[in-house]
């Protein structure tokens, strides 16, 4: 199978216990979950098949080969050196975020940007931590953040945690080195721990550059908690494998001790098998996938300009997510959602990402075969 046909193919997902496809009626295309409609790379399929055929599924340890593969990926793809002892494992990024925050910053508030991935709001709520938010603004074709407001909240003494989404979900914004340095310097000055979710850090559009917090100077990166996983990059979320990278030995030990005490499960051996294969052999697949998604964004840009000018979006620099602006339609989130589903397509409701910041917006997952995206766009036009 050629690279192009790999991403153009679409094995049936209904009837396979897919959370994304099982929760919508037969006539609806689901585009609300950050879950690809691409088959994972062949190297992953082969590794899982070989492991499954062994026939022994007993208690397993995480082999050194996984840590080596992950560290080599970070070095090769992102230019970041990660030592084996700096890596903790969890079943998912949000699991890692919640237990890290509970271990390190259990008391004061949490700062986030809106719109925001919904669990970044529910995790603080679960821990009884108040939420402080800064609303991002669209200026000159880019999503921006008010650093004066950021510093004011940081200096107020009511916050001990900052959840950074790098790259940003749902806008697809890539933060520059200068922006990241400024954010982390402010947090460092005020004793705020930075939790950087970098799960979309591999999904970078051609011509753009991702900067990991791990690549910043030691006085900044050394105090941060960086969370990442192969799940978005290679479509492996069902295998629940993620990494928590913590350079501070003191902080790392606190997180590990709390997770151990509470019997928090880590990845399964099949997840480790898949992740190791992906990190070792999946780089070219990843780059081809990024090019394909960029082509999908080209299609969307042309479609909205020609056929649906009342809908727009700032082209994402990263992620396979599009934050669509429906405000010129005059429809609120509930009415938009109702009309879209009635027309046969379901997007992520904007208000789930922040009631104020998300009103009039919808999130679309563009990691799918182009023909499926084309059909979904036509259904959006029908809905309006």
Could you characterize the architecture of this molecule?
The structure is a single chain. The protein has 384 residues and is an alpha/beta fold. The chain has 2 domains: 3-40 and 283-383, Aspartate Aminotransferase, domain 1 (Alpha-Beta Complex), CATH 3.90.1150; 48-281, Aspartate Aminotransferase, domain 2, CATH 3.40.640.10. 43% of the residues lie in helices and 16% in strands. It has 15 helices and 13 strands. It has a 7-stranded mixed beta sheet, with helices on both faces. The radius of gyration is 21 Å and the shape is globular. The two termini are 38 Å apart.
Q: Strand fraction band?
A: 15-25%
How many helices does DSSP assign? 15
CATH architectural type of the largest domain: 3-Layer(aba) Sandwich
CATH superfamily annotation of the largest domain: Type I PLP-dependent aspartate aminotransferase-like (Major domain)
* Shape descriptor: globular
> How many domains, in number, for the residues?
2
Would you count the extended β strands for me? 13
Average pLDDT reading: 96
| Arrangement of strands in the largest sheet | 2-10-9-8-7-3-4
CATH class of the largest domain: Alpha Beta
* Named CATH topology of the largest domain: Aspartate Aminotransferase, domain 2
Nearest-angstrom radius of gyration? 21 Å
Q: Can you tell me the residue ranges where pLDDT is under 50 for at least 5 consecutive residues?
A: none
Biggest β-sheet description: 7 strands, mixed
SSE-based structural type: alpha/beta
Helix content range: 40-55%
What is the distance, rounded to the nearest whole angstrom, between the alpha carbons of the first and last residues?
A: 38 Å
> What's the order of the H and E elements?
HHEHHEHEHEEEHEHEHEHEHHHEHEEH
């Amino acid at each position: 199978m050629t690279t192009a046909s790999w991403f153009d193919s679409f094995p049936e997902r209904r009837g396979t216990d897919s959370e994304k496809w099982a929760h919508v009626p037969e006539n609806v295309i689901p585009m609300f979950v950050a879950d690809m409609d691409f088959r994972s790379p062949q190297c992953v399929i082969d590794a899982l098949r070989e492991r499954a055929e062994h026939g022994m599924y007993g208690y397993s340890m995480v082999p050194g080969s996984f840590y080596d593969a992950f560290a080599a990926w970070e070095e090769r793809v992102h230019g970041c050196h990660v030592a084996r002892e700096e890596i903790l494992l969890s079943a998912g990024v949000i699991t890692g975020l919640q237990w890290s925050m509970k271990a390190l910053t259990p008391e004061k508030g949490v700062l986030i940007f809106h719109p925001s991935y919904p669990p970044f709001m529910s995790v603080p709520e679960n821990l009884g931590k108040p939420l402080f938010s800064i609303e991002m603004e669209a200026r000159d074709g880019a999503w921006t953040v008010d650093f004066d407001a950021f510093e004011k909240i940081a200096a107020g003494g009511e916050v001990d945690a900052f959840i950074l989404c790098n790259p940003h979900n749902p806008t697809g914004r890539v933060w520059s080195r200068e922006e990241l340095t400024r954010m982390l310097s402010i947090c460092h000055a005020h004793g705020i721990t930075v939790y950087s979710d970098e799960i979309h850090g591999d999904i970078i559009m051609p011509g753009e550059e991702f900067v990991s917090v791990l690549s910043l100077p030691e006085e900044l990166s050394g105090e941060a908690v960086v969370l990442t996983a192969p799940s978005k990059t290679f479509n492996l979320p069902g295998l629940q494998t993620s990494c928590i990278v913590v350079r501070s030995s003191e902080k790392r030990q606190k997180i590990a001790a709390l997770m151990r005490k509470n019997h928090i499960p880590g990845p399964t051996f099949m997840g480790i098998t898949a992740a190791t294969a992906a990190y070792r052999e999946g780089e070219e697949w990843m780059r081809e996938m990024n090019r394909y998604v960029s082509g999908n964004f080209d299609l969307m840009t042309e479609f909205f300009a020609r056929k649906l000018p009342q809908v727009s979006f700032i082209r994402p620099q990263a992620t396979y997510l599009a934050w669509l602006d429906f405000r010129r339609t005059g429809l609120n989130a509930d009415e938009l959602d109702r009309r879209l589903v009635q027309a046969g397509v379901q997007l992520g409701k904007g208000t789930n990402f922040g009631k104020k910041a998300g009103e009039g917006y919808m999130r679309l997952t563009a990691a799918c075969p182009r023909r499926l995206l084309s059909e979904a766009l036509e259904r959006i036009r029908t809905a309006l």
